[in-house]
Design goal:
Elements (H helix, E strand, L loop, with lengths): L2 H26 L1 H10 L1 H22 L7 H12 L2 H20 L18 E6 L12 E7 L8 E2 L7 E2 L3 E3 L2 E6 L3 E7 L8 H14 E12 L8 H14 L1 E8 L3 E8 L3 H11 L11 H4 L31
Parallel strand pairs: 1-2, 1-7, 2-3, 4-6, 7-8
Antiparallel strand pairs: 5-6, 8-10, 9-10
Length: about 325
C-alpha cells in the first residue's frame, strides 16, 4: 500500500470513530455516550495507535517547514508571548479596558491586579497529547494528558470530567485531579473535533479557564483544509463564545490545513465579555460548532464490529489536517 492510500485508511479510522461517537450521543445523550466510549479500550487503543502513526509518520513527513508544523507553531508563539515586553503590552491593554469599565462603575480595578510572572520554565497542560510531542522543547514543564495515551510519559486523564481544585493528584500514570490557576499554557491540538457536542467543547474550554493562571493562554489548533474564508463565520463565533468565558483572542492564523488560535485569560472576565457584547453579530450564539455538527448523518444502522469501516470521502479533510491532492 502506497503512502497516500495508507494515509487515507488511517484517516478514515479516525473519522469513523468520530462518527460513531456523534451517532451514539444523539441516541443516548452525550454524557452517557462519552462514558461508554471511555470504557471501550479496544477502540481507544486503535484511535491512539492510528493518531500516533498519522502524526509521527505522515504529517511529520509533509510538514518539514515551520509554517505548517502545528508543534513548532505552538512553541514559536508561546516563546513570543512569554516575553516581558509582549506580556506587558497585553496587560496594559487589559488595564486600559478595566479603567474604562471602572469609570463606568462596572468593575473595581483593585480586584484585577494579579498577573502572571515570567519564569524560565512554562507550565504546559497538553490536552489530548497522545504521544507527548512537545517534549522536544526544553522550556516546557509538561503535563501531557490523554484518554488513550500512546507513550509511557503521557498521563491518562479525562479533561472533560476531571475534578479541578487546589492540587494535582496523580496515581501512577493517571491524573485524577487538576489544580486551578496553575498552568501558563493549555493546548487543544485537534481536540475539540473529537468531542461530539458543542456543550462538551464549551465545558473543556471552561476547564481550561479554571486551570490557567491569569494571563495564561489557551492554544487551539483545529483542522481546516478549506479556503481562507469558508469557515470564517465559525471561527468568529468561536471567538465570541470564548470571549463569554473570559478569553480574549490575541492570535489567529490560517495555515494550509489548519487554523491556529490563541486565547488569553484576561485580567478580568469583564474585559472579554465587554468585547463580546460590543461586536456580537446577529448570527452569533454561545456555541462551539464544527462542520460535522451541521452535516446530515447517515441513519443506516451498522453492526458494532463494522462501525469503523468507512469508505474514503473528501469531507474527511474537515476533521483532520491532511491533504490528499
Amino acid at each position: 500500500m502506497d503512502n497516500l492510500e495508507e494515509q487515507k485508511k488511517l484517516a478514515n479510522i479516525i473519522k469513523g470513530i468520530h462518527q460513531d461517537l456523534r451517532k451514539s450521543s444523539k441516541e443516548v445523550g452525550a454524557d452517557e455516550a462519552w462514558t461508554k466510549h471511555l470504557k471501550n479500550k479496544e477502540k481507544l487503543d486503535l484511535y491512539a495507535k492510528t493518531m500516533k502513526e498519522l502524526s509521527e509518520t505522515h504529517w511529520k513527513q509533509k510538514n518539514t517547514d515551520n509554517l505548517n508544523d502545528r508543534i513548532k507553531w505552538i512553541i514559536s508563539y508561546s516563546e513570543f508571548y512569554f516575553q516581558q515586553n509582549e506580556l506587558e503590552s497585553f496587560r496594559q491593554k487589559d488595564l486600559n479596558v478595566i479603567e474604562k469599565l471602572r469609570q463606568d462603575n462596572q468593575v473595581d480595578i483593585n480586584d484585577y491586579k494579579k498577573s502572571i510572572e515570567i519564569n524560565e520554565k512554562l507550565k504546559v497542560l497538553d490536552v489530548g497529547s497522545n504521544g507527548n510531542f512537545f517534549k522536544i522543547h526544553e522550556r516546557f514543564d509538561l503535563t501531557p494528558i490523554d484518554i488513550a495515551p500512546s507513550s509511557d510519559d503521557c498521563f491518562y486523564c479525562d479533561f472533560y470530567s476531571v475534578p479541578i481544585s487546589q492540587e494535582l493528584v496523580q496515581d501512577n500514570q493517571r491524573i485524577t485531579n487538576l489544580p486551578e490557576n496553575h498552568f501558563d499554557i493549555v493546548t487543544f491540538c485537534l481536540l475539540l473535533e473529537y468531542l461530539p457536542t458543542s456543550e462538551m467543547r464549551i465545558r473543556c474550554c471552561e476547564n481550561a479557564y479554571k486551570v490557567l493562571k491569569t494571563e495564561g493562554i489557551l492554544i487551539i489548533i483545529t483542522p481546516d483544509s478549506s479556503s481562507q474564508h469558508r469557515n470564517a463565520a465559525q471561527i468568529k463565533n468561536w471567538r465570541f463564545t470564548l470571549a463569554m468565558l473570559g478569553f480574549r483572542r490575541i492570535k489567529v492564523e490560517k495555515l494550509k490545513n489548519l487554523t491556529c488560535m490563541v486565547f488569553r485569560k484576561s485580567l478580568s472576565k469583564d474585559i472579554s465579555k465587554k468585547w463580546a457584547e460590543k461586536y456580537k453579530e446577529p448570527y452569533m450564539d454561545f456555541k462551539l460548532e464544527i462542520p460535522q455538527d451541521r452535516k446530515i448523518e447517515n441513519e443506516e444502522t451498522q453492526d458494532e464490529s463494522d462501525s469503523i469501516q468507512y469508505t474514503y470521502e473528501p469531507e474527511i479533510m474537515n476533521e483532520l489536517p491532511v491533504d490528499f491532492d
